[in-house]
What we know:
Elements: H1 12-24, H2 34-47, H3 51-69, E1 76-81, E2 84-89
Amino acid sequence: MEENQTKRKTKTSSQVKQRYNEKVYDVLSVRVPKDMAAAFKAKCTAEGIPQAQIIKRAIEDFFELVANRGVCRPLFLISGRGNSWHAQHISSSTKKTA
Length: 98
């Protein structure tokens, strides 16, 4: 009787999670230079921060910026080459005047 009580492996749980994720979430795709992507992945790993968390935060910051200023302005100035990429936050104090 103990043979029949062994834990069986099913895909039900995975299928339920997949259906939920497809219902609730969407996938965004972006193309960036390979060296930028590699540097981003390495930095996220080194900092212990999930890549998706960075993207979600950037989207939230964008929404907040647009809501507060009523305009769309860049949040970060990204520069670099190879494995050396830097993001500098653009604050209102760095705003150029004509």
